[in-house]
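#help-structures

NK: newbie question. if I give both the sequence and a SMILES, will the prediction place the ligand too? trying with magnesium ion
OV: yes, paste both and it writes out the complex. here, I ran yours:
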Amino acid sequence: MLGSLRVRLPALFLLGILVSGLLAAAIALRLFQDYTRGQSFDELQREASGLSQLYADAALRAADEGAAAPDFAAEKLELATGDRLFYVGVSVFPGQESGLKRIPEASLPGGVTVFDDATTFEFTPPGESRVFLAASEPLRLEPDTEPFGAVIVAKPQTALRDQWTPLIARLAIAFGLGALLAGVLSWWLSRRITGPVLVLSHAADQIAAGDYAVNVPPARGGDEISHLSERFGEMAARLAATEERERQFLMTVSHELRTPLTAIKGHVDALRDGLVDDPDLMQESLAVVAAEAVRLERLVGDVLDLAKLRAHRFTVQSEEVDMARLVEQAFGAFGDEARRRDIDYRLVEEGSGPTLLTDGDRVLQVITNLLQNAFRWTPDDGTVELVLRQGNGTVHVEVADSGPGISPEEREQIFRPFHSTDTQGTGLGLPIARELAGALGGRIELESTVGRGSRFRLVLRPPAS
Ligand SMILES: Nc1ncnc2c1ncn2[C@@H]1O[C@H](COP(=O)(O)OP(=O)(O)OP(=O)(O)O)[C@@H](O)[C@H]1O
Ligand SMILES: [Mg+2]
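OV: that's the protein plus ligand as structure tokens.
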């Protein structure tokens, strides 16, 4: 269950979203901390600057008038700042420390120079355990004179935390809501993705178990998964069709084998039981047995050839073949029949006789097959033409006849095993010829007009250079 895509995908989505959410929250918090810290320093600096002005004015007046410490200033300062105000430097109000907490310069962190310029820093004031954020401002009686001290305004660092805490709480709520939404979204999204994948997975199980009648509903969306579903459905349909074809093939083969066997068995039984005693009839029976045995032998040979070709277990030689000689050889084999039946039988050779790197015996087998059909279907006094043509980078061997022609509906069927309208034929000639042509790297084309004749064309690879 945990290994299922349906669980792993949303879990992965959610994990990714949670990690990036946490990272974003941590970065936001960090930025906010930096921002509030900067803001606090700015505020402290402004306070320090204002108070130092006030303090310097009071000190100047006290110096001018030789008066005592300006109580009003001390009170004001104390009111304004409470215990967050420190003073470093010489006492300018003898006998009075005013509202400022005087601290030794040595209690400031190393490297902090409060007398030169306005500065900000962190420090732990004497008698305190907390860390304070601080801003200092030098004190001068007159501009451009030596500072006699510095005012430090500070506030505990923990005050910043009060600003962050509500932010953390809000971030946590937003994060929780976001995670919930992301969870629902990733669950919905992964269901959309895994739904069709699970259907495919079940269909694949079914096919693996040998059941090709699977139903793969088309997935919506036009994405890769819907493409996969579509192709998977087609593949299953093709597998089912192939299985059906193989079954049909096997049934037809058994049926075709049984016909001559039944005839042989009938004649042999009759002879053995002494049912035929006339010597002429006996000879006739034996002739039938012999003819059926030949037919059987041819049938078995053809079926084997076709099975090997289909399983790509057919070995084809590769030799230099003089196509003109080969075609003349094929042509010569039917000369007698043509003369006997008054068929106008012609050999046409166009172009210089090409040489091909191919399997001569197999090419001859295909041409002979086509010629056999042409002579079978051409009436006496008809025409059969054998053409060797070279052009367009291919070599064509054409067999044209003036037979009945083949209707467009039949043009594909005649290449299927056992499709035959010839009582003597097996219906394996053309399927074998087509597979052979394919094995030789070529193809067979057909042009035909019903009532006028057919033209079968063997197209072979370009001539060897
Ligand atoms: N030249 C042709 N003219 C008309 N019909 C043809 C021609 N060639 C083939 N056919 C048709 O195609 C069918 C299949 O031919 P194919 O060569 O495969 O088998 P076959 O000739 O019947 O038997 P086999 O060649 O095995 O003895 C034939 O039965 C016939 O109906
Ligand atoms: Mg044939």
